[in-house]
Design goal:
Largest sheet: 6 strands, antiparallel
Low-confidence stretches: none
Number of domains: 2
Oligomer: single chain
Distance between the termini: 26 Å
Helix content: 40-55%
Mean pLDDT: 81
Structural class: alpha+beta
Number of strands: 11
Strand content: 15-25%
Order of helices and strands: HEEHEEEEEEEHHHHEEHHHH
Amino acid sequence: MDSSELLKLYTKKERDEKTVGFIDGVGFSIIRDYPEETKYFEDNMKMFIKVSVEGEKISYSVNMTEPKGEEPEISYSITDGDKYKKRVTNYYSSGEVERDREFEFTADKKVKVLKTGKEISINDFVEVLESNHLSDRMFWKRKLNTLNELILKFVFWLANKKYESRAQLSIDIYHFQQGTKEELVKQKDIEPFFNYFYISKNLLFSVLLISFIGGIISWQNWPFGDFSASNPILILLIFLTLFMLEIISLALQERINKLFEKEETFYKKEKKNFVEKLYKYQMTNKFKLKT
């Protein structure tokens, strides 16, 4: 089968502005208008749908695009549509990982929905792709990503490291793995306290602040005798706290530095620490298509 044969299986719709078969590989792309009742249609945004087939494997993508220029030199720039109150979902699937596949192309030239076993036409498959694109499938994921990023910023702050954004962190990791930013891991962000305890300044500040507030609230109920430097229990508690803070500081440093390990090592590790899991969660935007 070639692209022209696959394209024959698709009946062009009224909103389809252009359908083009692939030269390399078996597949086609569709430039489609958005429904007239949407703001995207008013702004002349276009839906860019791609479908390709290789044996049973079927890959696809749907993106919002903004046309630029005029025919025949017109081009389409992908945009995430974040300026709109009602968001769309740009997504793609390569079909490479068998366990993640949701569809297969059958010998009968239909698309099989693996979850239900139902076979649908190419036209119905394109409608499934469009309906998922028009739905804001990442609404809750964006909320969770925001919370995730706040946690990461706090963890980096406690370790005296700078976290600007998810994108900047990804760039820093890439540069380190290429050997152009070794100082990211080698820089010392903790200093000896009393020439012995290695505690990050921000972590120490946080504990002192909490202790100060807690002391004001509960000083009358202090159960360990006089609150003075001559109280051995108080001295013991102070040094025990410093010891625990050192353990936490060094643990945070180690877990953050794990992010910057070489890529082949990072992805082969079976067990990831919580910092790596938070970062990986932000970079993973998977969802199942509604059929």
